[in-house]
Design goal:
about 375 residues, alpha/beta, seven-stranded parallel beta sheet, 17 helices, about 45% helix, about 15% strand, globular
């Protein structure tokens, strides 16, 4: 995107961004700055910030309000703080910034050109806001781009979730029974990679189509109540609350490991663990041991937060480049067309999605065929 941003299409634009502050995010921020933007940055998770990256961005002129280990109060303070810049554009990962602006600061929200959303959870929240008539600016759902969810959600989360679990525990996955809750793009990416490492994978689902797909992909499918009794490792990837609760904990094996790959720390009920545990202790960074009344022990990774970012470094840059290219090009699109956009959630324009795919292939030195004129006419015609 270097050539695109040499023209500085974002000159004079203020951007408020809530993102995981990692080295991959830093490249996006530097690209936007090269385009002329002024950036105010907060973290989208209290535990995911890489402090050295945050410091480097601050030294380069970014207004950074993020550090690893924020309290919940500090997390929301930082989100509020970046809105003081009166942004033209907002970038979010999870929806907390969008909700804060539209509900707590409507006078600021109505002046915003538009925004983007990085993740599935945030897009779900934004569609609900649009439905309820509270969304005050257009938002492009970057998560819905093919070059985002087919690669970032599936391959990126699939690998980085396992990376986080292994860094935290150093267990052998081969031969383990691993329960993956949810078979969306994130869940299937995790499941496929676990199978490749020799694990026996069980899928739990509430969507009958996804459950059927998991079954025909070769995975065992069952209810969480049953899976709780036989799993060695549990990974949640649903975006919903209370996926694993007290009733499941009490059925689990001694030594079962609990990890969450969803955006918020609500899928593995930490509250239930705290309520039923007779004691707990921190065994090592990212691993908390809970002793239960039945004399069994459960091990929670990363305090129930995003295991790939709390216990590891998040997605590799080789997949985040496509996600953040979608972000940068979508932001330029909003700046250039905001006067003609309605206050609703848009998918990434098809031309941007295709451009990102072409740029990625070019960066990898791969060339593909092009349709001939006769081929194009053939597939566009109903007369053969």
């Amino acid at each position: 995107l270097g050539d695109v941003y040499k023209r500085q299409p974002l000159n004079g634009i203020r951007i408020a961004a809530v993102l995981h502050v990692t080295k991959e995010t830093a490249v996006l921020i530097r690209t936007l700055m090269r385009g002329g933007a002024e950036i105010w940055l907060a973290a989208s998770n209290p535990m995911s910030t890489q402090d050295d990256v945050a410091a480097a961005l601050a030294l380069s002129g970014v207004h950074v309000f993020a550090w690893r280990g924020e309290t919940q109060e500090e997390y929301f303070w930082a989100i509020d703080k970046i809105t003081e810049c009166e942004p033209h554009i907002v970038i979010d990962d999870g929806g907390d910034l969008h909700v804060h602006l539209n509900i707590q600061k409507p006078s600021t929200a109505v002046r915003i050109y538009g925004g983007t959303e990085e993740t599935t959870t945030g897009v779900i929240r934004l569609r609900a806001m649009e439905k309820d008539g509270v969304l005050k600016y257009p938002v492009i759902a970057v998560n819905n781009a093919l070059t985002k969810y087919l690669f970032d959600n599936r391959y990126g989360t699939g690998q980085s979730t396992i990376d986080g679990i292994l860094r935290a525990t150093n267990i052998l996955l081969a031969g383990k029974t691993v329960v993956v809750a949810g078979y969306g793009w994130v869940g299937r990416g995790i499941a496929w990679r676990l199978r490749g490492m020799g694990a026996h994978v069980i899928i739990t689902e509430v969507n009958p189509v996804r459950a059927l797909e998991a079954l025909m992909d070769g995975f065992e499918v069952m209810k969480m109540d049953r899976a709780a009794e036989i799993g060695d490792v549990f990974i949640t990837a649903t975006g919903n609350i209370d996926v694993i609760t007290k009733e499941h904990y009490l059925k689990m094996k001694d030594g079962a490991i609990l990890a969450n790959a969803g955006h918020f720390d609500v899928e593995v009920s930490v509250k239930d663990l705290e309520n039923i545990a007779t004691s707990k202790r921190e065994l090592r960074e990212c691993v908390t041991e809970y002793s239960l009344p039945n004399n069994k022990r459960l091990y929670l990774l990363g305090k129930g937060r995003l295991v790939n970012l709390v216990c590891a470094e998040g997605h590799p840059s080789e997949v985040m480049d496509m996600s953040f290219a979608n972000q940068a090009l979508s932001i330029r699109y909003i700046v250039e067309r905001h006067n003609s956009l309605d206050k609703k959630v848009y998918d990434v324009p098809k031309e941007i999605d295709l451009e990102v795919a072409e740029l990625k292939l070019k960066s990898m030195g791969i060339e593909i065929d092009r349709l001939t004129e006769n081929q194009r006419k053939y597939i566009e015609s109903w007369l053969f």
